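Notes from hallway chat w/ T.B., transcribed later so I don't forget. T.B. wanted the structure written out for a chain they're using in a teaching module, and asked if we could keep both sequence and structure tokens in one place. Agreed to drop them here.
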Amino acid sequence: MLLRSMFAQNYRSLRSIRMDLADVNVFIGENGVGKSNLYRALQLVQAAVRGTLAYEIAAEGGMASALWSGRRREEKNFRIKLEVEVLDEERAITFRYRVEAGLRPPIDAAGFAFEPQVKAEELSVETGSRPVTMMKRAGPGIMVRGPAGRMEEYPEQAMTSETAIALLGDAGHYPEIGAFRRLVEGWRFFHGFRTDRQSPLRNPCLAVTSPLLAEDGSNMAAVFATLVHTRGDTVELDRAVASALNGAKLQVPAPGEYAEFGLTFPDFPHRVFQPRELSDGQIRFLGLAAALMSYRQPPLIALNEPEASLHPDMLKALAGMIGQAAQASQVWVVTHSQPLAFAVEEQCGVRPKRVIRKDSATWIEGMRLTGLMEEDD
């Protein structure tokens, strides 16, 4: 699966931006230019697929906070618009999904006064020369392509807080919609990890085979146990941990009721240091290792400022793990660390995209309005 392009309009500092994407995408820029808004816009597409778009926007302050923060032209329907193009390489199918969200009209009695409302959606697929619309929603009404290949009205209307993509996906009758949902639901977003004493990363977890790391890292011990005791191959993981943590070795005992882990260090080879004893940088690096080197790789791994709390000497090892993950996953990295960006460029051969402010809006330096970079012309 490959996320080929994304488009965002009227979301926070994203006035209108479309960009093509590669296997590894590194976004670097100063604080406040809108790097995290690019990351968050992609996260909201996944929220739409899961049916939680309205909740996610409400949780970040509502539409008043989420709408374009700059000067606005007079527009009758001022909305957040998000769009992605996803290629399923195995089946040679291109999916295009668009969703729009806005505020309730003053005269509309449906919904709550200040909640985000889903206004429009469309999903199309392309397997040959032209795209075919599979689902289209305007307001509460939904049109969907039925088993006979014709567009027909779906018998149930969507509530203002619901997305049609989630409603139809749950219905189980539309294979293309279900396939797109599974692709996007598989994305993983890691917006830092808690490193305080109560952090999930520092605690044992139930011993359940875990092929993927949870986004809060709560099953990290089980991810390590799955690698050690199920796969039985931790060569790359051991190399990364030793490189970043001064020769440390990950110790993962056979799980009982709970999965646990610790570290040994060359200076203390017979003493296992427990997670509660590790520094913030050490425990965060282990969280990134679990995210990037898990038993099964997600189609997309997005990291937001992964360098936080890491010693500069750890960045080369982090870039190595990103390169390793990129062999199976598409990777998205948001950072303001120039050394990390350089290390990933050296490891993966990709040029970082520099995020800037242009006319008060977030933009990518050297990118044309079509979404192509100048060097791609």
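Follow-up for T.B.: The CA atoms of residues 58 and 115 lie 6 Å apart. Might be a good example for the class.
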